[in-house]
């Protein structure tokens, strides 16, 4: 009798809306999202968050060790015979990138933009249709700390719901999509060094907090031994 297990994989979909201005807490050309302490941002599963311009050439041993050429084993050190690895189920071919809120929505809005719909088409719709083993997609909205907690909670929920509604309109079964809202409770960056009032008029703060305004997609895959 076949036993099934749930494999939880996270991909955080990101495309920075400000193409020509680097964030105050992101190191250019690293290919990975960097927090305010200069460390690579990782999700709950220890996977590094890639930027929209990441390429395999930017891979690091910390984040993508399989893509980094390993040092040759010293000839004078004996090599133990490796046991054959058990064949496991293949993972869905989803890119580990992050969808910034500004890629999908205008600032402080929850209506999908035309380019946001195109991004969802290529990054989610096509890949869900090509990977029927994907059972459930959890779309979670996140916000920055500008505004009240209650407002940000509702805004991030409206954005998650808008993303779900579009996916359903493109033929994805609504039962395969769940939504959640985290508001401002799970920030990626703090930007405490930015001076000025905490408001949407503080352009430097708005730009710095951009990584916090995001939509995260969590995928549950039903695999069988």
UniProtKB/TrEMBL annotation:
InterPro entries: Bact_OuterMem_StrucFunc, OMP_bac, OmpA-like, OMPA-like_CS, OmpA-like_sf. Residues 1-24 form the signal peptide. It is found in: Cell outer membrane. Transmembrane segments: none annotated. Keywords: Cell outer membrane, Membrane, Signal. GO terms for cellular component: cell outer membrane. It comes from the Bacteria. Residues 92-223 form the OmpA-like domain. It holds the Pfam family OmpA. The keyword Nucleotide-binding does not apply. Its main location: membrane. The keyword ATP-binding does not apply. This is OOP family OmpA-OmpF porin. It comes from Sulfurirhabdus autotrophica.
């Amino acid at each position: 009798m076949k036993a099934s297990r749930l494999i939880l994989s996270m991909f955080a979909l990101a495309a920075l809306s400000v193409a020509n201005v680097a964030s105050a807490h992101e190191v250019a050309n690293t290919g990975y999202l960097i927090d305010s302490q200069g460390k690579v941002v990782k999700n709950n599963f220890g996977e590094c968050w890639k930027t929209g311009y990441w390429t395999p050439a930017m891979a690091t041993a910390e984040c993508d060790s399989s893509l980094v050429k390993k040092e040759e084993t010293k000839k004078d050190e004996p090599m133990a015979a490796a046991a054959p690895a058990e064949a496991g189920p293949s993972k869905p071919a989803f890119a580990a990138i992050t969808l910034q809120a500004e890629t999908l929505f205008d600032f402080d809005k929850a209506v999908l933009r035309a380019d946001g719909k195109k991004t969802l088409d290529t990054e989610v719709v096509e890949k869900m249709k090509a990977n029927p083993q994907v059972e459930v997609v959890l779309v979670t909205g996140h916000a920055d700390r500008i505004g009240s907690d209650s407002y940000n909670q509702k805004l991030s929920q409206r954005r998650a719901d808008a993303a779900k509604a579009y996916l359903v309109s493109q033929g994805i079964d609504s039962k395969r999509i769940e939504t959640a809202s985290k508001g401002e409770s799970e920030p990626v960056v703090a930007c405490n060094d930015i001076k000025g009032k905490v408001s949407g008029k503080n352009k430097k703060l708005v730009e710095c907090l951009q990584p916090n305004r995001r939509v995260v997609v969590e995928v549950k895959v039903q695999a069988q031994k």
